[in-house]
Amino acid sequence: MSDKAILEYQGKKYEFPVTEGTEGELGINIKTLRSEAGMITLDRGYKNTGSCESAITFLNGEEGILRYRGYAIEDLAEKADFLEVAYLLIFGELPNKQQLDKFYGDIKEESEVDEEMKKILDGFPKAAHPMGVLASLTSALTAFNPGSVDVESEEDMYKAIVKILGKFPVLVAWTQRKKNSLPLNYGDDSLGYVENLHKMMFEKPGKKYNVDKSVIEALDKLLILHADHEQNCSASTVRMVGSSHAGLFASISAGISALWGPLHGGANQAVIEMLEGIKADGGDTHKFMQKAKDKEDPFRLMGFGHRVYKNFDPRAKIIKKSADEVLEGLGVEDPVLDIAKGLEKEALEDDYFVKRKLYPNVDFYSGIIYRALGIPVEMFTVMFALGRLPGWIAQWREMRLKKEPIGRPRQIYVGANLREFKEVSER
Ligand code: ACO
């Protein structure tokens, strides 16, 4: 096989090296395209553009494969916990006991948030969407933790990483507590990372905090499944913002804003809103299946289909099992869940969906579990953000360590040609 790709344009040939990844993926390196051929590539939405070489996450949408640092998502979801996965994603290897204990110890040391931050939270209206609040608070962390990270220093890098991992769950919990008019609190260092988060979110004043172990396990699994997904919209945003050498907190804050949209992390909220809508309409799933198939109708079955996974979403398989266990374990009975099951069954047997390879994606089930766990709908995407935090950090760290250049795409200009300026009186 040739390791060069040849482009022919107007009788001239240009050669470009081909890069092969460890899983056999091929990329044409067009670095010299503009200087040699006077052209650029045009690729709306970067659907076919590799922005970097990365050793963090591998996914194959055709075969439904997802791996973090070479480990199958199925194994990690079954055998590891969220903090181990965070360490793996960020530093490249699974931690031994000593490394893990130190990592969590250092995170706990950083789990205080400056009291002054409460004043910022206070300024938000209660109706504010938690994702907007979280993005702002994360950005504000920069002001309370000034000083740029010396990326040449592993120690500096490490400190910034444990800082954000320590403070982020507090901010997540505070956004929920503000929404629910509960007093702001801090965590309990004797608990694990995810249980501590849960306690901070749900503990009520004067009431003994109690949680079923299966709830924490389900939450932990959900966070693992969301921890990274290679160069998606929010990870690319974190890399892009960080490539200007803006700090880690500012880059993560930008990633949160990117995740907020309904085409990205906001889909889990859209699923529950759709199910609620079907319920309010009388619960006829067949009617909505017909609507989803009708090309004249803009309605789509939220939680079905995926841009990359065209066979099945491996995360959905894992989470479906977990959803069944949690719902049964908690004895949850909810008409919205019955509607979800009905839709799923019909879609999996329907020719339209089967032909187009439209399967339930991870967000179809994650919303259902979050709801069963008592997490408010508007907090769903915030939970996604917490899960994705290690991935964003890993992407940012890799980008800085590799000394990637500032991200700056080009364009094909299609606007007006040079025009004569006219004074306002002549326009
Ligand atoms: N309901 C009904 N029809 C659908 C759906 C759906 N959810 N998704 C795709 N289709 C149909 C399209 O109408 C199209 O039909 P056609 O070939 O007859 O024109 C065909 O399937 C292909 O659809 P595309 O939009 O081209 O597929 P694409 O890969 O661009 O979109 C996407 C993927 C955006 C996820 C889409 O399936 C969708 O909108 N799903 C619902 C939203 C959702 O659940 N998003 C969460 C994704 S998971 C995540 O981000 C973590």
UniProtKB/TrEMBL annotation:
Looking at the record's lineage, which domain of life comes first? Bacteria
Coiled-coil spans are: none
Q: Which PROSITE patterns match?
A: CITRATE_SYNTHASE
Pathway involvement?
Carbohydrate metabolism; tricarboxylic acid cycle; isocitrate from oxaloacetate: step 1/2
Annotated GO MF terms:
citrate synthase activity
Question: Which Gene3D superfamilies does the protein's record reference?
Answer: 2.20.28.60, Citrate Synthase, domain 1 (1.10.580.10), Cytochrome P450-Terp, domain 2 (1.10.230.10)
Q: Which reaction does it catalyse?
A: oxaloacetate + acetyl-CoA + H2O = citrate + CoA + H(+)
* InterPro entries in UniProt: Citrate_synth-like_lrg_a-sub (IPR016142), Citrate_synth-like_sm_a-sub (IPR016143), Citrate_synthase (IPR002020), Citrate_synthase_AS (IPR019810), Citrate_synthase_bac-typ (IPR024176), Citrate_synthase_sf (IPR036969), Citrate_synthase_typ-I (IPR010953)
Record keywords:
Acyltransferase, Transferase, Tricarboxylic acid cycle
Q: Which family does it belong to?
A: Belongs to the citrate synthase family.
Its name, as the record gives it, is Citrate synthase
Organism this protein belongs to: Zunongwangia endophytica
Q: What is the lineage of its organism?
A: Bacteria, Pseudomonadati, Bacteroidota, Flavobacteriia, Flavobacteriales
